[in-house]
Amino acid sequence: MPVPALQPDRINILMYHQVGDFGRSPAVRAHPSTYCDRHRFARQMAWLASHGYTVLDMDAVLACLRGERAIPPRAVALTFDDGYRNFYEHAWPVLQRHGFPATVYLIADMLGQPARWFAADGRDTPPLMARAELLELRRAGILFGSHTAGHVKLAQHSDAVIHDELSRSRQVLEDLFGERIDHFCYPYGSHDLRVVEAVAEAGYLTATTCNRAPAGRDDDPLVLPRKAIAHGDNLLGFLWRLHMKNTPRKTPLHRADVAAPAPGVGRGLALAAGVDNNQ
């Protein structure tokens, strides 16, 4: 199969949640973007490895967006929301096989606990990774970011709750890993200008959304788009999302005080808010 070109000077940030054996349960059908079959995941990673893609973590994405390093021609970043134990069991061995980095966003108050927000939808509550597993992965090079303390829709909460969720989650993770936590992910994609400004004040350097598009230097680094990979995506579906799903579903938000992009580029507007049902 010939390899189609990616948009130049852009990075496709891919969004995964769980990786494992899930079948076709009602929960999977209702929330396909929160599940990925482990065999399909392995084929997706093998394709990236054999067709010349450069896989980045969010530290490398930030360096590219700042202009500190060139954006590779086929740049892909792998991100995993929530920190499920099945990342450790099924995704990590595949990443190791190919030498791929990844970024995992953690819910600071639920480390080693069940993903209890699933219960609201009547779903089983899968376990999240515990501290020992997280430290092992960090020593092996996996990068971690914050996904709040309690997996809440930030745009629906008060300034005080937003501040607590952002600052407390960062502090818990910095205490665990003994290093700065620079990267954030909005649970459910829930953000507006007030939330994004709070993320900036909390000291995060990047934040990812659920808005579908490749990321570039014209994007606000605290409102970076991602492409969700869903349970039903075979290899052709994966490539379709990777190469063809480039139109944002919502007008991307952009803070007015972010440095202006180069002439002739820029998709951001200062007024739009983004909320998505992805978890």
UniProtKB/TrEMBL annotation:
Give the UniProt subcellular location, in the record's own words. Secreted
Q: Locate the NodB homology domain: which residues?
A: 74-279
Q: What is its EC number?
A: 3.5.1.33
Q: Which InterPro entries match?
A: Glyco_hydro/deAcase_b/a-brl (IPR011330), NODB_dom (IPR002509), Polysacch_Deacetylase (IPR051398)
Q: Name one GO cellular component term.
A: extracellular region
PROSITE patterns given in the database record: NODB
Top-level taxonomic group = Bacteria
Task: Supply one GO BP term.
Answer: carbohydrate metabolic process
Q: Which UniProt keywords apply?
A: Hydrolase, Signal
Q: Under the GO molecular function aspect, what terms does this record hold?
A: N-acetylglucosamine deacetylase activity
Listed PANTHER family: POLY-BETA-1,6-N-ACETYL-D-GLUCOSAMINE N-DEACETYLASE (PTHR34216:SF3), PTHR34216
**Protein name as annotated:** Polysaccharide deacetylase
Q: Which organism is it from?
A: Azoarcus sp. (strain BH72)
